[in-house]
Amino acid sequence: MNWTRFTIHTTTEAEDLVCAMLQDLGISGIEIVDSLPVEDGDRQGGVFEELQPDLPQDDGTSRICFYVEEGTDTGELLESVRLGLDDLRAFTDIGEGTITSDETREEDWINNWKQYFSSFTVGNLYIKPTWEETEEIHRDKLMIEIDPGVSFGTGKHETTQLCLLQMQKYLKKGDLLLDVGCGSGILSISALKMGAAHVTGTDIDPDCIGSTRENMETNRLDLSLGDFYVGNLTTDRDLQETVGRERYDVVVANILADIIIPMATAIAAAMKPGAVFIASGIIDFKTPEVRRAIKSAGLRILEENTMGEWASITAEKE
Known about the structure:
Layout: E1 2-11, H1 15-24, E2 31-33, H2 40-45, E3 49-50, E4 61-69, H3 75-89, E5 98-105, H4 106-112, E6 120-122, E7 125-129, E8 142-146, H5 158-170, E9 176-180, H6 186-193, E10 198-203, H7 206-218, E11 226-230, H8 237-243, E12 248-254, H9 257-270, E13 271-283, H10 287-296, E14 299-307, E15 310-317
Parallel strand pairs: 7-8, 9-10, 9-12, 10-11, 12-13
Antiparallel strand pairs: 1-4, 1-5, 2-4, 3-6, 6-7, 13-15, 14-15
C-alpha cells in the first residue's frame, strides 16, 4: 500500500500546538523530526533518559509529518490544516508554515521509525525498540520491547510518559486495567509488567489491536492476560457492555482532550469505587475543559501534572 506523506515546515516552539491542531482534525500517526535535545532537568531527574547518538545542533526548525492513504481526497483536509496553521500564526511563531508532500510505501513508512526511536527510561521502566540490544546498565529495570509498526506508540512522547509515571505510582499488583486508545499496547504491556492481573484495551484502529497483541508476544506475555476490542467507548453501547461496569481498578486514556471530554461518563461507569483514572494527551490550554468533564462524571481530582505543553489528570471514583 502507498501513502502520501504531508510535511508541515514549522518551528520547534510551535510543535505541540501544531500536533494538537492535527489531532483535533482527526489526524493520527504524526511524525516529528527536529534536533531538540532532552532537557537537562529531565536527565538529572531520571524521568526521561535519552540514549540515542548526539543530535545535530538545534536550528529552531521542525518538520511535522502525517500520512494519508493514496487515493484519498485530501482537498478538504488540507484546507482545514491550512486554516488551523493560520489560526496558530496569530499567536505563536510557526515559521514557514508551509506544507509539502511526497509518496511513500507502507514498508518505508514503518521502517523510517527506526531512525528516530531509540531506547529510553521512564521511572523504573526501560523501553527499547525490538531491533536494539539491551543496555547492560538498565537490566535492573522493567524492560518493555516495542515495535510501533503502523500504530505509532513508542512511549517517547510526553503524554505517554506522564501516563507511565502515574501508573507506577497508582497501579497495584493484581489490579485490572482498562487502556482506552491502546495504540501499540505500551501502557497495557507496562501494566502487566508492573503486576496487573489483566488488561482490557480499546482502539478505533484495527491495526492497533494487532500491534498490541504482537508486542505482548514480543514481551513474552500470555495473550490470555489481555482482551482488546475495536470501537469507540463513547458511543458504542455494545462495547461499553463488553468492557463492563464497575470492573476496573485503573483506567488509562492517552488520547485527545476532545475525546476524553465526552467519554468521561463512560469511563467513570467502568471504574470500581476507589478506582483511579489517568487521563493524558491533554494540550495545556484544554486542561480546564477536561477537568470539568471529569468532575461532572463524578470523579475527584487527585493530581494534575505537566510535561512541556502537555498535561495529565489523575482522578478517583469515590
